[in-house]
């Protein structure tokens, strides 16, 4: 049993360690965006089964809260950090243009 625990801890340490280290090196505005956008992407992929109206309202509320403005923010951060390879690698993981166009023609 101890061997299994040690093996799991090693996998977690060596597997997640580099990812955690990269996140720690990100500028604060990028780290904040990453947190928000990961929450946004989580809720974008969540659909209750069978359809639950109350849960759908919760999901829609979270999507509005977390996703609104992320298209523009992603573009701004990519321009700001265009020469920072570490930041760009992280930002390039996110899909662009996820927000629906507004009804008045502006995004």
Task: Give a structural overview.
This protein has helices at 2-25, 28-44, 53-67, 70-80, 85-91. The chain starts with a helix and ends in a 16-residue tail after the last helix. It has a domain at 27-91. Helix 2 (28-44) packs antiparallel against helix 3 (53-67) and helix 2 packs antiparallel against helix 4 (70-80). 69% of the residues lie in helices and 0% in strands. It has 107 residues and is mainly α.
In short:
With 107 residues, the protein is mostly helical.
Strand content: under 5%
H/E element sequence: HHHHH
Helix content: 55-70%
The poorly predicted ranges are 16-22
Q: Main sheet?
A: none
Number of strands: 0
Molecular shape: globular
Mean pLDDT: 83
What structural class should be given to the helix and strand makeup?
mainly alpha
Instruction: Write down the Rg.
Output: 18 Å
Give me some keywords for this one.
107 residues; mainly alpha; 5 helices
Q: Topology, pairings included?
A:
Blueprint: H1 2-25, H2 28-44, H3 53-67, H4 70-80, H5 85-91
Helix pairs in contact: 2-3, 2-4
